[in-house]
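#struct-queue
[09:14] JT: dropping the first one here, sequence first, then the structure tokens:
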Amino acid sequence: MPMIDVYATTGTFADTAALAKDLAAAMMRWEGVPEISLFLDNTAAFVHEMAGDALSNAAGDSNYVRVQILTPAGVLDRDKQLGVVKEMTDIVASAAGDPGLAERTWVLITESPEGGWGIDGHAYTGHEIAEAARRELTGS
């Protein structure tokens, strides 16, 4: 159940709600989780809009987007990492209406340690998340 944070200058995206939903849905596909409430309700993206002078690269350019993905450890193998970075970049560039933004979009994947994923006051392990999903799928 990933959390996604997008950082961009204000006005980069016309519809931040659609961007957030598209990124969250894409991550669910890449993680290969079923569309059940456990995952639908707890996979989210947050779009952080900042003033133009709030970010800069070393050359002084501020027309970049950073996408930070936090996902449980071991969920994304190398092929999935490559796919996630490509799709997140494409979604961001499309949402901005700027194909060139793909060259200025940084995607960072961070893995949460085992037991480092908390929901409802409980730090879940991967096994506990899988068990919760099984219970929801089977109704038991």
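[09:21] JT: and here's the second one, same format:
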Amino acid sequence: MTIKTGDKIPSVMLKQLTANGMQDLSTDSVFKGKKIVMFAVPGAFTPTCSAKHLPGYTERMDEFKNQGLEVVCLAVNDPFVMKAWSDNAKAEGITMLADGNATFTKALGLEMDGTGYGLGTRCQRFALYAEDGVVKNLAVEKPGAFEVSSAEAMLKAISTKAAA
């Protein structure tokens, strides 16, 4: 079952490569008591992800920060790839999280079958906004699309919710 607005973020362990090496990071610690925008990509270094998705969030980081929002990027990749992608893209301020076994992705119900492309199980392209671990907005892209999960779309969705 796919997560939806009003649902609590599932409690799962993810990986992050830091200056202190590989770290386990629980989704509880990522989301608890915070306002988080998480965007997810089918894969680091893939065309749309590298040319549009990640750069859009990097370029708009100040707008997210000014609203008290933290930005997190998720992919079904290993933490070394996520760190290399972050360094390559100069993704300052974005927390890059690896869901190497797609455990979190499956818990969200947002996995996709990329075996036809040699990718195995990956996550669908999506973005969500959560407050204190509760989903307030979820935007899942149609296959091959890049419209509703962009930084611009999420900023607009969040400001619309705040105004309501």
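[09:30] RK: nice, looked through the second one.
[09:31] RK: The chain has six helices and nine strands.
[09:31] JT: good to know. The chain has a mean pLDDT of 93.
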